[in-house]
Amino acid sequence: MLAAASRQGLNLTSQIRRSARSAYGLQPLSGILKFSSTRAKAKAISHSGCNMASSHIVEDKPDTFADVKQNSAIAAANSNAASHKRVNAWQQPGPAAFDFRSDVMTTPTASMLDAITNTTLLDDVFLEDPTTNELESYVASLAGHEAGLLVMSGTMGNQVALRSHLVQPPHSVLCDIRGHIHNYEAGGVSCLSSAMLISVTPSNGHHLTLEDVQKHCIISDDVHACPTRVISLENTLDGMVMPLSEIRRISQFARSHGIRLHLDGARIWEAVAADAGSLPDFTREFDSVSMCFSKGLGAPIGSIIVGSKPFIAHARRIRKMLGGGTRQAGVISAAARVAVDENFGHGPNGEGGKLRASHARARNVAALWTAKGGKLANPTETNMVWLDLANEGCSADEFAELASTEGLKARGGRLVVHYQITEEAVERLGRVMDAVLQRKTRHGQNGA
């Protein structure tokens, strides 16, 4: 009986494994289950006591969670442009070399891989990993703060920091209406911190001013009000630098009213590379700062929060609550440290880094466009070039399609010239610009 039961159990286990593989598109059951993608919605396993249903054939549906910032037409164009998709990304230039969509497309380098293979493999939750501890300490010191905390993403960095500041509702967070915490973090401030967001449009079209903040900040004991407890600024934002002078004015106002100041500094490295101030110049005005390793710096993953020791100790608890505690974090921290040293530089002013060269290339791209007769939607202050496509009668979809014919990836008029963009990519982009402007001429939209 035991042998028979054992065989029956093995047969059931084997059947479950085959069905599970099929359900996830790994190895379809011959002639029984076929799914159109690895994210099939079909569930091949159903349980009724110990019995196993033979199969359930469910038509797969398209993924409804596609990034709304990249619609289907742009996605299709970029897919057509991906002629280099089989390139080993560790060999530079990798797939980011012709990708203008974002600096998140930067890929890790061979030196990062080498650091990963030689890193420590101890536990960060237990505070035992020396590579992670050293990274946190080094970047905090570089930014003029006492302590740092490794997190998995810029979103996690912002949300952990804001949740650590916000103790008890009712409370509100004031931010730029264009900012990431308002637009691109899935409503995290409202969900995780029970806070109201006050999103403010900068009156100068460039950056928030003290006058913008004073006009919208809620400082009131009225029971009807939701008092502002945190002002969250972003620098850089849309590739533009918020001036130090304005940050200091807002900082002085915030401190005079007991309001905490947070910086979404995912791209603060770019402000330093633009020679607008040193890293500590920008960051020490804030109670907390989130900085990203995986955008312009090119690490595969990771961000960091810096602040005071008591703040970071509390933030570590919030990180754990949100599932951000990492065990062998050295594989993340090692690559992040290389990204900081090689691409930002070795000091608070970004000495010896690669970002300044990408800014120069961005200025060349902007000059190329304007020399051909195009207009810019925003000034080129760091590594982003904003083409005014609307003025040329060209949609984002059409631009992405034109770019794809040159083997480039784009997402409309925002071009991010990260440090892995090559000169060949810029030459191809010039031909795309010509096509945009010639298209306008053919359609009779100029000279009127």
UniProtKB/TrEMBL annotation:
GO biological process: glycine biosynthetic process; L-threonine catabolic process
GO cellular component: cytosol
Segments forming domain Aromatic amino acid beta-eliminating lyase/threonine aldolase: 99-390
Keyword Lyase included in the entry's annotation: yes
Alphabetic keyword roster: Lyase, Pyridoxal phosphate
Names of the cofactor(s): pyridoxal 5'-phosphate
GO molecular function: L-allo-threonine aldolase activity
Name of one Pfam family that matches: Beta_elim_lyase
Family to which this protein belongs: Belongs to the threonine aldolase family.
Matches recorded under PANTHER family: L-THREONINE ALDOLASE, L-THREONINE ALDOLASE-RELATED
Protein name in UniProt: Aromatic amino acid beta-eliminating lyase/threonine aldolase domain-containing protein
Record organism: Cladophialophora immunda
